[in-house]
Amino acid sequence: MDYSIALLAVILLFPVFILLLILTSWDTGFPGIFKQERIGRHAKPFTIYKFRTIHPITTRKSFIGKWLRKTKLDELPQLFNILKGDMALVGPRPDVAGYYDQLNGEDRLVLLLKPGLTSEAGIKYRNEEELLSRQENPLQYNDEVLFPDKVRMNLEYYHNLSFKTDIHILLKTFSIACPVFNRY
């Protein structure tokens, strides 16, 4: 199902991909795609794709990058990660090394899941960057508050994994991404 939906989305959104690629390349330099190593299923690293939002020279968010992050459109290239089999539509959001790969005990169960484009934790913390910017010590807050809560939510997802749960999360994500449909 993930592959089929991702393929359909890539086909339908292809003009949007091209436009955003041109805009991000113009705004941040060529290529407009950002690649980063993240931790995937079974703690194996993989390369995640996003539209570049930070100018490589100034290391500040670009004009278009601010909008892409606010709308989460910078995440669209992850549809290609789904097509490659690195990710699923729904699952724990992938993180950089030093987090999920360091889990112990029952918490490691989240590593049995493919990372996802969306999740309950991703929805709850969709404004994570803004939340962290208000903290005196953002790294400490992430390590002691946000990340443990995300792990808890991802474990809950693992234990209640079902097609119905995935549909619920996808509909919730869609209603947030497209407020005009925000009746869910």
From TrEMBL:
<dbReference type="InterPro" id="IPR003362">
    <property type="entry name" value="Bact_transf"/>
</dbReference>
<feature type="transmembrane region" description="Helical">
    <location>
        <begin position="6"/>
        <end position="26"/>
    </location>
</feature>
<comment type="similarity">
    <text>Belongs to the bacterial sugar transferase family.</text>
</comment>
<dbReference type="GO" id="GO:0016780">
    <property type="term" value="F:phosphotransferase activity, for other substituted phosphate groups"/>
</dbReference>
<dbReference type="Pfam" id="PF02397">
    <property type="entry name" value="Bac_transf"/>
</dbReference>
<keyword id="KW-0812">Transmembrane</keyword>
<keyword id="KW-1133">Transmembrane helix</keyword>
<keyword id="KW-0472">Membrane</keyword>
<protein>
    <submittedName>
        <fullName>Sugar transferase</fullName>
    </submittedName>
</protein>
<keyword id="KW-0808">Transferase</keyword>
<feature type="domain" description="Bacterial sugar transferase">
    <location>
        <begin position="1"/>
        <end position="176"/>
    </location>
</feature>
